[in-house]
């Protein structure tokens, strides 16, 4: 059976969990003998994938570039981003819902007109979907309650994690180091983390915080860290490649995902676990799903700097799962298992 996946970016075009998710699923599906899988997104593709060109230019130009027809004979079109990709043209349509695009934009501070337009676009593109895939029950509820989707056509399929790319290593000796991998925008909660960091330093004055990622709030967060007197202990690293990210995990004591809103699962938390590092996460969306079966105490209320500081201090004091326990838990999230669930879904849609 021929299946065509469409995304926004390949990992080569930009860092982040969604490009890695798209590539991870595509590579796992390609290993299956019962599927003929193709894929397209912007940027240099993974082996066997296709590209619509560089991830550059106007939004309208990229929309047009992405509307190239799927390969002849495609039975199922699996769309991972509402804005991009061709029409199904007789194929069954599976839509991956990675989050409410319009509401995420609102949380990031976009204007009302832009948010309203995005809401219209995503609803139009979701129309006609035969099945939806979400990574957590929390986002299944969002689809049903906010978009009026029939719960019977929503499948919850947890993601996999690249266990080879993110290898477990012992926690290094020396001053404790906390790693946060997030886009620098309001809904990611980096401002809350900076407020919490003062409480961490009160207990661990030698601790260091590395924030990996980029975004519109980089300058504001740099200034905020300086205002709080944290400039010597907080580093806004900027964007890095996956090899450097793996090294950052190996250098960390624990990690933190301080999101305020709209988290479908938090692939970054799984990557941390694969590297043997316990992630402290907020109780937003599907984030708790990444750690609940390992250590529910790693979950804290969102936007609560005091609770976040307390939990980080406890983790640095040693109240955290071991490297081996983190790695073993991450191994439950296998890409081949996720691919099997998708293959079953594709067969049902094509029947």
Overview of the molecule:
This protein has about 350 residues and is an alpha/beta fold. It has two domains: about 1-160 and about 335-350, 3-Layer(aba) Sandwich (Rossmann fold), CATH 3.40.50; about 175-330, 3-Layer(aba) Sandwich (Rossmann fold). Helix content is about 40%, strand content about 15%. It is built from twelve helices and 13 strands. It has helices at about 15-30, 60-65, 100-105, 110-125, 135-145, 190-205, 220-225, 240-250, 265-275, 305-315, 325-330, 335-350; strands at about 1-10, 35-40, 50, 75-80, 90-95, 130-135, 155, 175-180, 210, 235-240, 255, 280, 300. It has a seven-stranded parallel β-sheet, sandwiched between helices. Strands 10-9-8-11-12-13 form a six-stranded parallel β-sheet, with helices on both faces. Helix 9 links the parallel strand 11 and strand 12 (about 280).
Task: Furnish the topology, listing elements before pairings.
Elements: E1 2-9, H1 17-30, E2 36-42, E3 50-51, H2 59-66, E4 76-79, E5 92-96, H3 101-107, H4 112-126, E6 131-134, H5 137-147, E7 154-156, E8 177-181, H6 190-203, E9 208-212, H7 218-227, E10 234-238, H8 242-251, E11 254-257, H9 267-274, E12 279-282, E13 299-300, H10 305-316, H11 323-330, H12 335-350
Parallel strand pairs: 1-2, 1-4, 2-3, 4-5, 5-6, 6-7, 8-9, 8-11, 9-10, 11-12, 12-13
Helix pairs in contact: 1-12, 3-4, 6-10, 9-11
